[in-house]
Amino acid sequence: NAGVTQTPKFRVLKTGQSMTLLCAQDMNHEYMYWYRQDPGMGLRLIHYSVGEGTTAKGEVPDGYNVSRLKKQNFLLGLESAAPSQTSVYFCASRRGQADQETQYFGPGTRLLVL
Amino acid sequence: GQNIDQPTEMTATEGAIVQINCTYQTSGFNGLFWYQQHAGEAPTFLSYNVLDGLEEKGRFSSFLSRSKGYSYLLLKELQMKDSASYLCAVINSNYQLIWGAGTKLIIKP
């Protein structure tokens, strides 16, 4: 069981470039999330998915798009990267909607936009 | 608005006890999580509270008072490996998880 994995671990982009971050989970979880974490701030939800083929906006969705074509994968796209998107991105998954269900996090992707 | 407040940083001595507080103001309440996050790593689950009172798990305990919008994480017999950030998160009435900025705990020998 690999749990939640993220690809790549680290990336440097120039302003205006695009890229896709991949999150994969092998726990058959329904719910998946993309967060960004910046110094001095809490985790902020970008987009999330409650099942295959579904996506929804979180707290800070602008500049990002997502897709959940397969249950195990959740992709985060940056269409035109900006320096403000320099951050650490975490993917998380959750088995179901019961409150006590914990989120399991991937190791993170560190993105630097120059 | 919704916010969760935690101290930014705390320092404690190896072998001692430390209490990390979390106060929250959210639109509704459906539970509170504590996570541990070591530098450069992902958050990992520590505890979940939905009813008032103390939940004990080995060296770690978590307390909740819903009427006061308050929780704390108690760490006993501190070890150097406990140096990490501790994140408080609340599930609101829309079943969204609202995260605090985290408390960085520094353990000194």
How would you portray this structure in words?
The complex is a heterodimer of chains A (114) and B (109). Chain A is mainly beta. Helix content of chain A is 0%, strand content 48%. Chain A has strands spanning 4-7, 10-13, 19-25, 31-37, 44-49, 56-57, 64-67, 73-78, 87-94, 104-105, 109-113. In chain A, strands 2, 4, 5, 6, 9, 10 and 11 form a seven-stranded mixed β-sheet that branches. In chain A, strand 7 (64-67) and strand 8 (73-78) form a beta hairpin. Chain B is mostly beta strands and 109 residues long. Chain B has no helices and eleven strands. In chain B, the strands form two sheets. In chain B, strands 2, 4, 5, 9, 10 and 11 form a six-stranded mixed β-sheet that branches.
Shape of chain A: globular
The helix fraction of chain B, in percent, is under 10%
Helix-strand pattern of chain B: EEEEEEEEEEE
- Content of β-strand of chain B: over 45%
Features:
heterodimer; A: 114 residues; mainly beta; seven-stranded mixed β-sheet; four-stranded antiparallel β-sheet; 11 strands; globular; B: 109 residues; six-stranded mixed β-sheet
List the helices and strands and how they pair.
The complex is a heterodimer of chains A (114) and B (109).
Chain A: E1 4-7, E2 10-13, E3 19-25, E4 31-37, E5 44-49, E6 56-57, E7 64-67, E8 73-78, E9 87-94, E10 104-105, E11 109-113
Parallel strand pairs in A: 2-11
Antiparallel strand pairs in A: 1-3, 3-8, 4-5, 4-9, 5-6, 7-8, 9-10, 9-11
Chain B: E1 3-5, E2 9-13, E3 18-25, E4 32-37, E5 44-49, E6 53-57, E7 60-65, E8 70-75, E9 84-91, E10 97-99, E11 103-108
Parallel strand pairs in B: 2-11
Antiparallel strand pairs in B: 1-3, 3-8, 4-5, 4-9, 6-7, 7-8, 9-10, 9-11
